[in-house]
Amino acid sequence: MGMQHTSFVFSSAFIAGVLLVLATSVPSSASAAQWSRPFEISGWIPYWRSATGTTDVLPHLAQLTEVNPFGYTVTQEGRLSDAAVLSQEPWKTLQAEAKKQNVRYIPTVMWSDKEAMHTVLCDATKRQLLVRIIVDEVRVNGFDGIDIDFEGKKYETKQCFSAFLKELYKSMGDKWVQCTIESRTPLTDLYYGHDVPKDAGQYVNDFAVINKNCDRVRFMTYDQQTADQKREAEVKEPYAPVSDTKWVEKAIREAMKSIPKNKIVLGIPTYGYEWDVKTYANDEHTYDLLWSFNPQWGLDLAAKYNITPGRNAGGELGFTYFPEGSALSLPRPSTPWPWNLIASAASALTTAQNTNLSYRLVTWQDSQAIAEKVALAKNLGIRGVAVFKFDGGQDPKMWEVLK
């Protein structure tokens, strides 16, 4: 990064001496505007947490408009694979209860093999066969529709994916076609401080086609990571959130330019990330994503290191720490440390020494972060929100804000 890197060793006493900067809180969430038409709440139950997910959702079905078993995948040959085994329990009970309470029951087909997607979707025979398989699966099982979640497609697949959606929508008749797609960050924010590449606007998802052939368009406004370089430049702390509400608003406003508000659904995550962060002088950072987790894991980790989680610049709950076994691991403090103490110390030390320092950043979506996104969706006047994921591991207070 154009700076001199010098090796060094800090003593615990020296580190303690610079751990003086305390966490600051972000402004409280804005109140939601009065809602004048039905606001939809939906969400995915992952097949790998089917028991805890359905147990979590069943008592709250009345709060939902739609539930989505995250259950189907697609083989390389273009055939459906029922990873969730939706014909068995606990799915059958969930489907029956959803029908009783007039909640749409729409499973998701998730596909992320970009080479296979291109091969299948760009072959008219294979594409039309996949359409027939999906339509038959929906009708035979009494589903209310299907949710298409084809992620990471190549740009060359654009026209083929559009053809698939047109054929599927026409063939589904009175059944719902939901489309779950990637969010678009405004290019000037995504490449803030750099020249925007000439091919940056070559999007594989044709919003005009999606608008005509999807009953709802659900945006994956999560897994943000480093997608908002402008916002990252504005904050003076490590910044790699799952889903900053400020970035979410940018993404949804970008979508509103091409898709009517009454079809747009905002995606809300319920999980968190742990990052290995390397801080350099003058608040420069690099990030290595280690794993995702559910909120209780983050709380337990904070308790282990006696750190009080705080609200970070991304509007999420989190903290920074030196892990056990690291070069700068410290004894557990007798009094709780604030969430950003290690990050602040690292910034001061690396700037003073013109060097670098590694530590961990933990950040997750709690009920307050979720509430802010629900309020945002209502303020923007869009159709609703979709939660990823219902698995029993999210902040238990989430259900209080999904009303």
Description:
The chain has 403 residues and is an alpha/beta fold. The protein folds into 2 domains: 12-24 and 275-363, no CATH class; 40-270 and 366-401, TIM Barrel (Alpha-Beta Barrel). Helices cover 33% and strands 23% of the residues. A hairpin with a 5-residue loop joins β13 and β14 (317-321). α6 (158-172) runs parallel beside α8 (207-213). Mean pLDDT is 90; it is low at 1-36.
Give a short synopsis of this structure.
By secondary structure, the protein is an alpha/beta fold. It has 14 helices and 17 strands.
SSE layout and pairing:
Layout: H1 12-18, E1 40-46, H2 50-57, E2 66-74, E3 80-82, H3 91-100, E4 104-105, E5 108-111, H4 114-121, H5 124-140, E6 145-150, H6 158-172, E7 176-182, H7 187-190, H8 207-213, E8 216-220, H9 229-234, H10 245-256, E9 264-269, E10 272-280, E11 284-293, H11 295-304, E12 307-308, E13 310-311, E14 317-321, E15 337-338, H12 341-353, E16 356-364, H13 367-380, E17 384-388, H14 398-401
Parallel strand pairs: 1-2, 1-17, 2-4, 2-5, 5-6, 6-7, 7-8, 8-9, 9-17, 12-15
Antiparallel strand pairs: 2-3, 10-11, 10-16, 13-14, 14-16
